[in-house]
């Protein structure tokens, strides 16, 4: 085989012939590309091989130096050696099928029989005896082979289990898609029935209003008809008086005329003194005026009611502070009257006392933080005195600390102002993610409400990397939601408001609590969460994988509850908080999104 390979080597490129193979008149063979390289690289001054200033006309054979003359066709005039080309094809096929013998990289005559665990490579016995692997730990290659095969089989089994799980999940999704279509059709039928019922009510009310209009019309027409009848009767009496007067005017006897003239004058006077001719009714239907604006506004607001879980509509906007120009005065519509007065006063530079009276604030010197910026005003909401619900306003300067929440770092270098009320009429607490606490492998976007894991940035893929919120809570209740539908590995929880160690996982110490999920724990088809605190885990199995997680922190009662939004409770931590609490998040697969500003009773 080796001698055949040498015979099939081109004397120019020293490699196996490449088609097409040309045969020279001296019976030697060359690759066409090699012939072109020889012909067109001849020295232009070598007149023995050129026929003039045109293209080359001859070249020497690389093996026997016999001159080969090219005709008018040039290289195309040389014959192809089809036999050599076929032999080359056969050789390449056979060579590809021959399995080369594996030998040691250091000793070509020895086959590897050992495996070096330190360098993770196969070696021969000489390498262990006299080579660089004398001090290394080695194993028999066949044992390592069996171990590696077992490991790969285990990995393959995991992938097969994952594939089966995906098949089941795909089937469940298809079934769910069919159910969604059926449910949508059912709800469309329900909407059609309800709208038809509204149409029926409107049609009945239309008939009732028509009847009322007809009744008033008949009354008006009857009154007008009676007045016309009376006028016609009076007209007949007037005509009779006129005729009697005309007869008297024709009387030629003066005595009779004079005697009857006074009586006729009185009759004519009485006839002319009849009632004023004014219509008894007008054309206006004052008692049937139409004003359906309120009903139209109500119909324009027709929408689906809240679901069985009692959650608010997803398009509900959280209640921002009164300084937010994007919402204008609409923010105050969500506040009770007492909170409205106080927040309006705080925004305009005045304070409000318990009775709602305004007190003008004094202006501090330029460059100095105002006294109002360093204090927190707290009042009891009058809408629910039995629950003692409270609201808080804090315009925080650097170093300020409100009573119920504290702003953390933000891009401006100072904490945000917190405006929220815990009364049932007001919205919850709104916060964002603190970009200064985010490591390089986590990217914040969507106004610091979305965390995306960036696998291409250098880090340990399963190492600790977390982001904290830009607020802390030291009393009351706060609720937020985390959309986890785009993530396959995350932790959601809270920690004390301190510099959290970068090398510790959430829940890996006694001052953090976290709910963990990793898709690798669901390969057997069972969805599991781990509730972790101080490195102690509690495994919680759920029926369906949540799309959104709800987190309710009740600081005063020492409870941190996690929910599958719209489906039910997952787990509750019972603890005694001694320091301010900060929401914390960790993601190592995909992205998560937080939604804040929700009232604590959103569940």
Largest sheet report: 12 strands, antiparallel
Please mark out the parts with pLDDT under 50 across 5 or more consecutive residues, or reply none.
47-51, 306-426
Radius of gyration: 50 Å
Shape: elongated
User: Can you tell me the CATH topology of the largest domain?
Assistant: Jelly Rolls
GO biological process, one term: innate immune response
Pfam family, one: zf-RING_UBOX
Subcellular location: Cytoplasm, Myofibril, Sarcomere, Z line
Main location: cytoplasm
What does this molecule look like?
The structure is a single chain. With 603 residues, this protein is of the alpha+beta class. The protein is built from eight helices and 27 strands. It folds into four domains: 2-97, Herpes Virus-1; 143-287, no CATH class; 328-421, no CATH class; 435-598, SPRY domain (Jelly Rolls), CATH 2.60.120. The strands form seven sheets. Strands 15, 16, 17, 19, 20, 21, 22, 23, 24, 25, 26 and 27 form a twelve-stranded antiparallel beta sheet that branches. β1 and β2 form a beta hairpin. The longest helix has 109 residues, at 141-249. The relative contact order is 0.06.
Question: What is the fold's blueprint, element by element?
Answer:
Layout: H1 2-7, E1 21-23, E2 29-31, H2 32-40, E3 58-60, E4 67-69, E5 79-80, H3 82-97, E6 114-116, E7 121-123, H4 125-129, E8 138-140, H5 141-249, H6 254-272, H7 293-300, H8 337-348, E9 350-352, E10 358-360, E11 376-380, E12 390-394, E13 405-407, E14 418-421, E15 442-445, E16 450-453, E17 466-468, E18 471-473, E19 477-483, E20 487-496, E21 512-518, E22 527-533, E23 536-542, E24 548-554, E25 559-564, E26 568-574, E27 581-598
Antiparallel strand pairs: 1-2, 1-5, 3-4, 6-7, 6-8, 9-10, 11-12, 12-14, 13-18, 15-16, 16-27, 17-27, 19-24, 19-27, 20-21, 20-27, 21-22, 22-23, 24-25, 25-26
Helix pairs in contact: 5-6
């Amino acid at each position: 085989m080796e001698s055949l390979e040498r015979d099939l080597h081109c004397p120019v490129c020293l490699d196996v012939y490449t088609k097409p193979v040309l045969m020279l008149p001296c019976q030697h063979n060359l690759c066409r590309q090699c012939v072109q390289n020889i012909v067109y690289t001849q020295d232009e001054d070598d007149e023995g091989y050129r026929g003039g200033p045109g293209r080359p006309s001859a070249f020497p054979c690389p093996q026997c130096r016999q001159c080969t003359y090219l005709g008018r066709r040039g290289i195309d005039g040389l014959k192809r050696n089809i036999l050599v080309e076929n032999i080359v094809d056969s050789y390449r096929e056979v060579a590809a099928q021959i399995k080369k013998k594996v030998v040691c990289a250091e000793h070509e005559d020895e086959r590897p029989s050992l495996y070096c665990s330190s360098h993770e490579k196969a070696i021969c016995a000489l390498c262990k005896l006299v080579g660089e692997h004398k001090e290394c730990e080695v194993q028999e290659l066949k044992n390592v082979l069996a171990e590696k095969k077992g490991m790969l089989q285990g990995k393959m089994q995991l992938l097969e289990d994952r594939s089966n799980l995906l098949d089941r999940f795909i089937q469940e999704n298809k079934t769910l898609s069919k159910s969604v279509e059926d449910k949508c059709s059912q709800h469309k039928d329900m909407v059609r029935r309800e709208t038809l019922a509204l149409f029926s009510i409107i049609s009945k009310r239309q008939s009732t209003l028509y009847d009322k209009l007809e009744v008033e019309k008949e009354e008006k027409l009857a009154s007008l008809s009676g007045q016309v009848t009376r006028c016609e009767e009076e007209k007949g009496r007037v005509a009779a008086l006129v005729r009697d007067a005309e007869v008297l005017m024709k009387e030629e006897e003066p005595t009779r005329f004079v005697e009857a003239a006074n009586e006729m004058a009185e009759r004519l006077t009485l006839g002319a003194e009849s009632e004023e001719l004014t219509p008894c009714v007008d054309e206006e239907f004052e008692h049937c005026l139409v004003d359906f604006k309120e009903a139209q506004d109500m119909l324009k607001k027709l929408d689906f009611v809240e679901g069985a879980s009692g959650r608010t509509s997803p398009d509900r906007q959280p209640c921002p502070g009164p300084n937010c120009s994007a919402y204008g005065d609409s923010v105050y519509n969500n506040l009770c009257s007492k909170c409205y007065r106080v927040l309006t006063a705080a925004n305009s530079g005045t304070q409000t006392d318990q009775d709602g009276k305004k007190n003008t604030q004094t202006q501090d010197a330029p460059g100095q933080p105002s006294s109002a910026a360093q204090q927190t005003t707290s009042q009891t909401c009058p809408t629910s005195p039995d629950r003692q619900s409270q609201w808080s306003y804090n315009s925080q300067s650097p170093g300020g600390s409100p009573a119920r929440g504290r702003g953390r770092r933000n891009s401006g270098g100072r904490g945000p102002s917190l405006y929220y009320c815990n009364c049932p009429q007001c919205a919850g607490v709104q916060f964002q993610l603190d970009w200064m606490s985010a490591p390089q492998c986590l990217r914040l976007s969507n106004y610091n409400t979305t965390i995306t894991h960036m696998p291409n940035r250098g880090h340990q893929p399963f190492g600790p990397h977390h982001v904290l919120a830009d607020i802390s809570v030291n009393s009351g209740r706060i609720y937020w939601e985390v959309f986890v539908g785009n993530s396959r590995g995350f932790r959601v929880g809270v920690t004390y408001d301190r510099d959290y160690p970068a090398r510790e996982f959430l829940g890996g110490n006694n001052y953090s609590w976290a709910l963990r999920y990793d898709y690798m724990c669901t390969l057997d088809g069972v969805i599991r969460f781990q509730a972790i605190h101080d490195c102690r885990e509690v495994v919680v199995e759920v029926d369906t994988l949540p799309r959104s997680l709800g987190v309710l922190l009740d600081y005063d009662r020492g409870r941190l509850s996690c929910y599958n939004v719209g489906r039910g409770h997952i787990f509750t931590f019972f603890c005694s908080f001694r320091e301010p609490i900060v929401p914390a998040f960790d993601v190592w697969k995909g992205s998560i999104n937080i939604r804040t500003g929700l009232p604590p009773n959103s569940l």
